[in-house]
């Protein structure tokens, strides 16, 4: 079997491993039970696909979504890997192709959904197939603490024991509780080697904005990123439909997606999103796990996500190719009330509700952060970092103010009204607005009536929202969302602790988003557009998603480095041997403006290796000696396959004659050895 490093280059087109990949792959190759927690878009799939090629037998991949499995299989096949999936959407011909490949011992990766593991014929099939490794994608689905619990994942541990094979499990987000449950349910008494790698996705720009005309904010964000694929997440099904209509009316290619749609329509949207460049999908979280398109350039949240883990998962769908990507999350007081109420009215046990409030608190702390957002986000996952320079707060550091007195006023108003009223009524008290409701309840006689006239209504809304974000106050579901004070607020109310808030969220209008980040320089932008057009044409002709030809990151690198030969082209990230053969000439023609000569197959196999340069020099020397050193001899040459053997074997004086044969050795051996000696 080939080693992992050579397969990484020749099959997948990568010159180096991403951080953390190599040690995980080595552990899996040697048969170690493994649990890997890696960032979304950090290259998890490669960590089981590459070991499958290094090991004997078949690797069974348990994956949660049919669309994801089919896309991964198609991408592997495009790279020249024997892979297949058995799903309920397969045609008879597709199933026959998988069964034949298994019978002929050709298949290396077999994908299945967890639901299929319960089928009666599955276990005998897997035993006949010589499954030697079990890989589990989205392993957090096995945990009831995880955010995508799937009961069918509970069968995987039993399958591992019955097959008696090593298991490699992967997930992007798993706190300590989820991690412990994954280990217990999947590995049992066989403790895995656990790899916990950095959660940072430095290519993703992070930004939050307080809601201030949210539809307009989203439309403006999308307008400046026109023709770039994006996802917009909404809290309700109705909003996905209305916002998708607004985007279409604004000239975008957009559609909606939610759990209330029938399966055929959902599959149609999934297919469009994979295949169309620049499509925007407006979705609920139903459009989530299994979105594996690498060139999503932006993700926006029209409403606050339910937790910091959900936020991390959802923004992680952008920029999986490593090229620049952007995010925007809108939030408001109503979002906070909704999320608190959903937790309090849920059926989870008290300890789970408390944990969910904690996760929401962490997300609200990120929304109302006073400094670099990436530092705040990574701190939640137990990591530290320097200011990132790639978030809105690094772009424009916020102005802060001591809000202790203002918060004390607000807390006093809440307590003096017995914690029975919402934000609007409390603001009326603070600014001294004598509404009929205020007068009917005698609240105009409270000591706090009118004490907060330093701030207007909009500014007080900003203060209350930040108080909710800091978990100083919570909506009480038993009192129709009335605010009640938490224990966190008591030291502030008593004057034992100060609090700092953001002035920009109180006094100033919502800041303008910085200009959309360019993928390449102005000089390279026309070439990138031409490369994308060629990619689109090739993808449509082959009925492939565009990224399966080359992803954005690969095209960006082509536009910047401008390779002119196949040897230079294969050095581009994402260009493996199979893709160079399939698409290299077409893209080189776009870059150079000229047709690229199709090399002999023996030379093509050497592309990108040291032997390729030796082959070319041997060919040059040979052309000078075709009629001998004096130019008068009988024409003679070595075949391309023979030159390739010389370039690869690098023989010495004793062995070159046997390789070339006596007649050719007399003419070429000395000159060839000079070339080989220069390379040693």
Task: Explain what this protein looks like in three dimensions.
It is a single chain. With 680 residues, this protein is α/β, with parallel strands linked by helices. It folds into 5 domains: 4-196, Rossmann fold; 204-395, P-loop containing nucleotide triphosphate hydrolases (Rossmann fold, 3-Layer(aba) Sandwich); 400-502, Arc Repressor Mutant, subunit A (Orthogonal Bundle); 525-598, HRDC domain (DNA polymerase, domain 1), CATH 1.10.150; 610-679. A 7-stranded parallel beta sheet has the order 3-4-2-5-6-1-7, with helices on both faces. Strand 13 (298-301), helix 12 (308-315) and strand 14 (325-331) form a beta-alpha-beta unit. Helix 14 packs antiparallel against helix 15, helix 17 (404-416) packs across helix 18 and helix 22 (525-542) packs across helix 26. It is elongated, with a radius of gyration of 31 Å. The chain starts with a helix and ends with a helix. The mean pLDDT is 88.
Q: What's the gyration radius in Å? A: 31 Å
| Strand numbers in spatial order across the main sheet | 3-4-2-5-6-1-7
Mean pLDDT across all amino acids: 88
Shape: elongated
What's the name of the CATH homologous superfamily of the largest domain? P-loop containing nucleotide triphosphate hydrolases
Q: What is the CATH first-level class name of the largest domain?
A: Alpha Beta
Straight-line N-to-C gap: 27 Å
Model regions low in confidence, pLDDT < 50 over at least 5 residues: none
Helix proportion of residues, in percent?
A: 40-55%
